[in-house]
Amino acid sequence: MKINIKYIFSFLILLTIEVLIALFVHDKFIRPYIGDVLVIILLYCFIRSFLRKIKFLPYYLFLFGIIAEILQYYKIIYLLNLQDNKILSIIIGSSFDIKDILCYLAAVIILIIWEKIEYSKYPS
Fold this sequence. Notes:
Largest sheet: none
Low-confidence stretches: none
Structural class: mainly alpha
Order of helices and strands: HHHHHH
Mean pLDDT: 92
């Protein structure tokens, strides 16, 4: 396994941005929407840091996001009795919102375009 420096660096930058958004941005656009778009791209960069091309990775991440939203709909944080754990509550989330799924979809579209550009430069 070879670590891809470009993706690990991108992951670390996006992680920093996500943490800064979570700590300091309390608006009605960046935190709820841009943060949700970035989280899918963050996960993509993390996975691509360690694994080469994974066919359909953006789609798998979209499915992961949908599953996370479904779990939020069923209040998984309360079912697991984790509502008092602030960090896990933020990571897992506590409220279902269909707009989050649309943000995940936007991220997947960005990633598909990114992959088309990236793989056209270096065909395998």
